């Protein structure tokens, strides 16, 4: 019994393990190209069931702790593996052995305390390797990367425990596009450790203190293109001239990111610029200057320039003691060779006139996201300031007057490009003055609502996007590029105003259509971006856009950004895919066809009505409806006649000379109602008939061949009173003047045919001896 329980327990464990593996495998989402996404799924192991079809596997941000030899053995075609931000503390020796096609491997931010070269021995084509943020102290006892000849990006180290770099660490690497070393607590750097790498395009160093910085520079200065220093406190930095003064250098760019300087260390950095002669570009990003800018007591006076630096970029510079800062006049002479200066988001409100005059080689100046106003710009753009300046960027400052801004820049005779976007100009004056060589002007996001002749006629590029413009009617004969997106334009500008325009971006307006004629009128237009508008997908517009195969070469955002706004049934569809019905595209033809069909229908109805007496039926129906409104029987006191006589005009002699004489002169006399005599003149004949029937005790029908065959259209209304016929009463008296074939009675008198089949009628005898009996029976019928 215990053995049976043990067996059941084992099977339960197996089943639960299988279900868990199945659940983990199902947590991956894979597409048809073999890209599988399993990041942030709370996985605690690599899912089982992975096959050779997987080419990219993302298991980052999970809780995986272990990578085994068999976890990835079937993923022989895997090219990208992301295992970052897990809890991996163990990777077995052959875990990646079968991944011979792997190009990208991320093991960053795990808990690996030891690194093994055996992990990478079969990864010959690996190009990217990230080992940042683990717990290791060194890069192992043997060279990790000697089996990775194609490695181009390498990231190693951590912010706490990584303290040593040895000579064998990077052996086998000859060329890297990017090398990132996070070593904030670096304590040991063995000389020549980085010298084995013959060429590094971009080196990123995370160093808390600059103690070993010079030693590293000595090894890389001849093989490095760009050095980026991050998160470093340079307060104690000292540059030794003897270290690299006699060596050839290849460093072209220096980047300081989140670095702290003092006045003294800044001077040491400037010395570095002089002795590393190849440096052409220097960038300070989010740095802090802990000083007051007093360089006069330092050795800065012995430095005449910034080496060969041509480009200087400063972003988010923090100066805690800014209000104690000196005038910086001591560094003015160093700027003579600088050609490009960018100072962004650093609270700059003034460039002193003397500094502007020293920037004699300056061609490009970017002062974006600062505090420049017209008052301070006047001092900055003083006489002889920036004599060769061609491009000035004053984006997102505190400029308010477009007219005054243009006047202040008249001193810049070589200025051809001006960016004053994201300033609050609101309005544009009618006239302005600008430097004579202005070719490019950016007025985007300045809240202007109209354009005037203030704009220079020499412009070749104009950007007025993201404003409140509802029209464009300026004549700019030299304009080649127009950027006017995110406004309120309802149509394309007139091509005659822009004769040489080649690029126009007019997306996100309220344009609802444009035509082939409009596009053709821009004879030199090569690029048009007009997506994101509220297009009315009319038949003409769809015919034009869908029928022009070459349209995609002009419309750069075609077809995805072109959507229908109306008609409602195609709203949201791409213009390219929208389809309208025949009735929408050929409305005139459809209306004409409908009118013709209606006319033919009416004509056919008329013919059928005439042929089958339809009009007669309608009149009978109307009379029947009229009669239905009245009581079925009139009160006794309303009876005025003994009988109403219905007869054919051709039988009037018999009715008027025989029947009337016989009945009305009888004693007591009968009172008959005849249409010739008793109908009220001017009253509708239908009403006369119905009223007479209702006011008569009986209704006498004098039937004959004349009654049946003669001019039925003239008398058809007389028979509307057939509604009063009822098989169960004797209100109707039928007199047959002559024999009538019942089949000869028209079908429309169905009621008459029915009564003749069910009621007894009086026949007029030809024999005079029998006529007295006829009149006797008739009088009796009337009295009944």
Automatic annotation (TrEMBL):
Its main location: membrane. Residues 639-782 form the TIR domain. InterPro entries: Cys-rich_flank_reg_C, Leu-rich_rpt, Leu-rich_rpt_typical-subtyp, LRR_dom_sf, TIR_dom, Toll-like_receptor, Toll_tir_struct_dom_sf. The keyword Ribonucleoprotein does not apply. It is a single-pass type I membrane protein. The chain crosses the membrane at residues 588-609. GO terms for biological process: cellular response to diacyl bacterial lipopeptide; cellular response to lipoteichoic acid; cellular response to triacyl bacterial lipopeptide; cellular response to type II interferon; defense response to Gram-positive bacterium; defense response to virus; detection of diacyl bacterial lipopeptide; detection of triacyl bacterial lipopeptide. Belongs to the Toll-like receptor family. This is Toll-like receptor 2.
